[in-house]
Amino acid sequence: MHLGLSVTYALALVTGALAVPAEKLETRQQPFTSTPITDHTEPWAFAFLPDNRILVNERRGNMRLVDPTTKAKGTITGVPSVAYGGQGGLHDVALHPDYAENSMVYISYAETGSGGAGGAVARAKLTLDTNGGGALSELEVIWRHSQRAQGGLQFACRLLFGPDGALWISSGEINQMTPAQSMTGNLGKMIKLYDNGTAFAGNPFASEGEVQAQIWSLGHRNPLGIDWDADGRLWEVEMGPMGGDELNLIERGANYGWPLVSQGRHYDGRTIPAHSTRPEFNPPKAFWVPVISPAGLIIYKGSLFSDWTGNAIITGLSSQSIVRATITGDTAREAQRFSMGKRMRGIREDSEGAIWVIEDGPSGRLLKLTPN
Ligand SMILES: *[C@@H]1O[C@H](CO)[C@@H](O)[C@H](O)[C@H]1NC(C)=O
Ligand SMILES: [Ca+2]
């Protein structure tokens, strides 16, 4: 007993002597247990079905159905052909808010056509069979990038349904830069639509034409993560160029500055003016130099990770990490970073508050994270 007290006291002294804030000290060990569920070929995204099975999109164009209990991995047929190459392929998957009644799922993907590749969003009816698989049918493309490009870069196209039932698409600028500022195209924008692809009536530029009517915000580069906080505010992560990854609070009609301002520089070394030089553009609430390469975002709603409620949890590719950022009012800052040893692609929270992530690459694992 005496020994126990001494050790505790000694640890307290060491902690004090190092003068490391408690939160930073905590980053040296992961506060969660990571349980591998299934392996996938270049997975990009996943979504939970009401029965707790999981749809997993693999970038080459395969949709899998995972049973986390048995770890069985079935196939969903009927995925359209995708433009696999560069960063492109099959991207996100989201369930319609009334999925339990209408079986509608939404997918985003890169498609080819004249001029190169662009992003597309389609909806389809999902029918599950009794053999652990299923099929998409009645597929209908409801949205497309207004321009295509060579190179296969920065499609993004994360899908998210809002509290009002609207469909949000985080549209990348397919590495074309200035179109992110153009109001005659939908590249580099947050897009808000009805579930059938029609522009949402309350959008800020609704009266200005067909493409303008889709736009909620502009000046985005490669926005790969979007989620709601408990107050109904939309947060977004986007990859900057060399340096300058951003966590943004998305406001109606606002311009986020790309490519006119950035906290990073161009890959050829040319500088870009910082956000502070152009106050008319909304600056990020947090940014990263060097980059973390944010590929997914949740605003944690659960209480299983009891200290994380309301935090932004971000998966990072080049940083091979999960980043936790605290949000206080309309400010945000990185609080912790967990090294995962693999490029981390997608992230979702389940109904019990466990956090699921998926690795990038040829044998990317779907992992379930639960507190230690
Ligand atoms: C899409 O849905 C909206 C809202 O329900 C509706 O007003 C609109 O007419 C629909 N558009 C089409 C083409 O069906
Ligand atoms: Ca910006």
From TrEMBL:
Entry-linked InterPro entries: 6-blade_b-propeller_TolB-like, Glc/Sorbosone_DH, Quinoprot_gluc/sorb_DH_b-prop
Chain ranges of the Glucose/Sorbosone dehydrogenase domain: 41-368
Key words, A-Z: Signal
Highest taxon, organism lineage: Eukaryota
Residues annotated as signal peptide: 1-19
Claim: Signal is one of the keywords in the record: yes
PANTHER family assigned to the protein according to its UniProt record, in alphabetical order: ALDOSE SUGAR DEHYDROGENASE YLII (PTHR19328:SF75), HEDGEHOG-INTERACTING PROTEIN (PTHR19328)
UniProt name for this protein: Glucose/Sorbosone dehydrogenase
Organism for this UniProt entry: Chaetomium fimeti
